[in-house]
Specification:
two-stranded antiparallel ribbon; 7-stranded mixed β-sheet; binds S-adenosylmethionine; alpha/beta; 222 residues; 20% strand
Amino acid sequence: MGGKIRDKFIKLYTMLTGYFNYHSINEENYACMAMQHDNAFDAFKELLQEVRPSQILEVGTAGGGTTLFLREYLNEIGLNDTRILSLDVVEQEWTNGLRERDITVDTDNVFDYSTNTLIRPDDIVPFIQREGTTIVLCDGGNKISEFITLSPYLKIGDIIMAHDYVDTVENFHENFVDKIWNWREIGDEHITEAVIQNNLEPFMQNLFTNVVWVCKVKRQNG
Ligand SMILES: C[S@@+](CC[C@H](N)C(=O)[O-])C[C@H]1O[C@@H](n2cnc3c(N)ncnc32)[C@H](O)[C@@H]1O
């Protein structure tokens, strides 16, 4: 298949299914599934270059494609020391493969989604509060609860993001369904309170709107 036709096919396939295979840039024949818009990683590249995080907490490892992309791109821009802690509740056949590639994967649940609290705060809060900028990615089983639960622990300058976000239901139906992305699990109506309480402001949002992520930075109070 020609390059352009192949790209169009991948775009359509990803729009219909919600995932694509991320192929390792270092290892031939190593690929992991990423449940993302096909342009999402271009946006993440810009974010990682700008923020140069010291650690990333990812909620929702799933196929590991996003996790592997993050590890490989961090290394590519010289951030080999940036730690990635990825959370899921299912141990998969590929989970150890991620662990062998300098990614910590923890599959013991840390969330109580019913009360928006952490069951194992000691395993998560100190990680977010390590020195340097932390990026928190909410893409697990309940993105609203993950955003509300984790945002109070951010330091000034830390970033919190959540996937399958479109600001309003109206915008989702008018501009996203069957055009960009067919899944909306979080919107402004779910996070406004947490955004105000934790002094979060939009960060590089223009880059992420069409790849259905919300992106906020924690600012100083007052
Ligand atoms: C939408 S998928 C994640 C997609 C992935 N981030 C990507 O970019 O390819 C959601 C994942 O969240 C996981 N999950 C469900 N409950 C969870 C929990 N309490 N903590 C962490 N992950 C959870 C599911 O097992 C599933 O693998």
